[in-house]
Every structure is written in structure tokens, then in C-alpha cells.
Write a structure and sequence with these properties.
Blueprint: E1 2-5, H1 13-28, E2 35-38, H2 45-53, E3 56-59, E4 69-72, H3 79-87, E5 91-94, H4 98-112, E6 116-120, H5 126-134, E7 139-141, E8 157-161, H6 167-180, E9 184-186, H7 192-204, E10 210-214, H8 220-232, E11 237-240, E12 256-261, H9 267-280, E13 285-287
Parallel strand pairs: 1-12, 1-13, 2-3, 2-4, 4-5, 6-7, 6-8, 8-9, 10-11, 10-12
Helix pairs in contact: 7-8
The protein binds iron/sulfur cluster.
Length: 292
Amino acid sequence: MKILKIIPQGFCHGVLRAIHQINHVLDENQYQKPLYMLGSLVHNRHVVQSFEERGIEIIHSIDSIQAGTIIITAHGLSVQKQKAIKEKGLNIIDATCDEVKKIQNLVQKKLQEGYTVLYYGKKNHAECQAIIESNPEVILIEKIEDVDHLPTIQNKIFFTSQTTMSYFDLQDILNKLSLKYNEIEKGIDVCNATKHRQEAVLEQAPLCDLCLIIGDPSSHNTMKLKEICEEKAHTKAILIENIADLASVSLNHISILGITSGASTPKSLVDEVIQTIQKNYPPCEVITKVNM
Ligand code: SF4
């Protein structure tokens, strides 16, 4: 068996920046304690647990918090919640990814210019919640069928999305919107890190008999990689969080095993999975390209 390491994969620059920022906070020891993180810095429990072990408490509301520092996660936070934190006199460390901030700013700008903003996202995702809470007039599109139920819009229309949506589904939605409305201005949407990981899966997964997607089930971009692998690349995909999940996966009769990982999955987890497979299925070479 050969393992095809699908590249790019793993930590994106936004996640790396957020992790460095929080490590700096913990190392410097100069921020007002206790340290709280409002939600998960990134959607990976291994990453979040490592911060909890170093003294950061994960919270989901600031209601009972009276003092200390609140870390805003890479997904961003609504202006109302940020205001509430400041009004309580709490410190803020903002680890919002720059790509997310760009979209937040763009949505506000376009609304001020009189556009109707259509936003493709998942309503329970922190990034989407920050946008919708801050700008309740934004119209959320969660799936292509939602386009059928959109009202007649007289204003100019601006379309953007959550950074971790499927780039391919987004194109389908945009095409459908273009049939329904005369003119749509498209802004930045899915970030390059997401897009490049999805394109790599679409291109390389068909060369594999099976793909392992390593990441946390709560990670939206990880689940999108699995979905693209199965639905667009037509290759069977299994999501695993770590080596413990390998016990239930049979790799007998697999010639080429594809491996990719979400933008919030630490490289160490991927390395452990590869080493375990190499040990259990020798000889097993790791490749990054399939010679046709
Ligand atoms: S997936 Fe994109 S938007 Fe999200 S943290 Fe990474 S770079 Fe930023």
C-alpha cells in the first residue's frame, strides 16, 4: 500500500496565527487573569485541550464573568458581544482570522452603501453567527434550495460567504442567483486556504481507493473535505480524529490510501496516523504524487 499525502492540508495561516497569538499570551504572563476563551479557538479538541491544560477556561457566555481577559476565537465575534465585554471592563484578545475580518468589514461597507447582502453560511457556525448578529439585515443562504425562497430584491445585491464553505457549492449557488437576479456583485468568500485544500482533494482523491480525512467532526472545513471527497471526487472517505479511530478502519486491499486533514488539525496527529499505518501495513511508502 502507498499513502498519498494530499497537499496542501492541515493548519492554515489563520489557525497558526491564532495559536501563536495565544501561546504568546500564555508565555508573556502579562494579561489580566483569569483567561477565558469564548468558544473554541479553532474546531479541534486536541488544540483546545492543550490551551485548557495551560490555564485557559473555555466559556460560552460572559454572563457570569466579572474580571479577566476574554479571547475572541479565529471565527470572530459580533459587535454586540464585543461591546458587552468592554462594558463589563474585561480585556479582549482578538484572535479573529484576517480573512474573516475582511469579510466582516466588507459586509458592513456594502450595507452602508445600500446593498442587500446575501451570505452563504451555516447558521450555527460561530463565523456566520458573528456576521448575522452584527448585521441582522443580511440574508442567509444555507443551501442551494434556499435561493428559490429569496424575495424580489430592488437594491443592488452583494454576495459573500463564510470562509469555510464548499467552493464548488458556492459556484452553483452563485450561478443560480445569477439566473434569478440581474446583477450580483461578488466579494471575497471562501478563503484561499479552504479553496486550495478542497481543490487538492477534488484532484487527488480520485487516484485513491480510500481517503482518510483527519480532523474534528465539529470542524466545518474538515467536514467539507469529506463531503467533497465523497460527492465531487466520488471516492470513499472516512473521518478519523486520531490514531484511536484507526482500530475500526480496515485497510486491507487498499493500494493507494489518500490522507488529508482539516485546517485546524495539528500535523502531529497526521504524523501519528501515518506512522501507525506504516507499522500495521508494511511495506507502506508515503508519496505526495501518483505517477500515472
Ligand atoms: S480557514 Fe481560512 S478563514 Fe478560517 S482560520 Fe484558516 S485562513 Fe482563516
